[in-house]
Amino acid sequence: MAGFILRRLLSTIPTLLGVLTIVFVMIRVAPGDPALAILGDNASQEALDAFRERMGLNDPMWVQYLDFLRGIARGSLGESMISGTPVLTSILEVLPYTLELALGAVFFGVVIGTPLGIMAALKRNGWLDYLLRVVSLVGLSFPAFLTAILLILWLAIDWRLFPVISTPTGGIGDRLYNLFLPALSLGLIMVAYVMRTARSAMLDVLGEDYIRTARAKGAPMRRLFLHHALRNALIPIVTVIGLYFGLMIGNAVLTEIIFNRPGLGKLIVLALNQRDYSTLQGLMVFSAFLVVMVNLLTDIAYGLVDPRVKLK
């Protein structure tokens, strides 16, 4: 297992390097002058030149790229052009709120989507299967922000079961209470993905020869389902969870804005409004690193679920 994890770790290095290069180029080729955007149109030429010199914007592109990589290697994402605060410090202050929102959405997706997908597979072509397939299609069709608005109108304003503004303060009970509605609105998309994947995976497994052989030998349905079918159907489910966790992080940005929650979303909007390019660059790098790490954990989960993966 250690060798398998080491191989996966080494394989992430080219991916991270490619992502860092793309982020660096995107920020540099974006239209507009950062100095002019920060200091304003009325800034003197001397002030603009001093700002560009201080931020290293006058250096050749390859020098800026090497400085960028050195900073990443030291664990630094640079400093805000506006406040001078280290970008990593600003990110770490709000990261827990975004992670708990994304993990809450994944929790709803797995806990609700997996059983429903398995039920649809076991009742294939029945009324329940058709109903759940329609529900999953509707879930995939609704964008995250529209789902959030509808839930606010329904559960927060009409029924007054949950607060309109999600404030992650207080004890664990209060935090979970405030987290429920935004996590549910974000998790409904995950429910649809997981449901469809679980149904397809379970149908594939139930059609295998070893399942038919076990049935012919009179294996109990409970043992057949838990020990043979379910474990082999987990790999595609783990795959979709890992792949769409990055999507959850992206959709969490809109959800945080709608529910007025602190997190990476509000930090991104603030950086955009202030034209804080260094903070935007740091946020893009950190988000990419987070997605790569999630994919690495997904690969490791493969090895735990299916030992054959470790041999590849």
Describe what you observe in this structure:
It is a single chain. This protein is mainly alpha-helical and 312 residues long. The chain folds into two domains: 2-87, no CATH class; 92-311, MetI-like (MetI-like fold), CATH 1.10.3720.10. It has twelve helices and no strands. Helix 5 runs antiparallel to helix 6 and helix 5 (87-122) packs antiparallel against helix 10 (221-258). The termini are close together. The relative contact order is 0.14. The mean pLDDT is 84.
Describe this structure in a few short sentences.
This protein is mostly helical and 312 residues long. It contains 12 helices and no strands.
- Report the C-alpha radius of gyration, rounded: 24 Å
Number of domains: 2
Give me the CATH fold name of the largest domain: MetI-like fold
What's the CATH architecture name of the largest domain? Orthogonal Bundle
DSSP helix count? 12
Compute the average pLDDT.
84
* Distance, first to last CA: 12 Å
Low-confidence stretches: none
Structural class: mainly alpha
Q: What is the approximate shape?
A: globular
By DSSP, the count of extended strands is 0
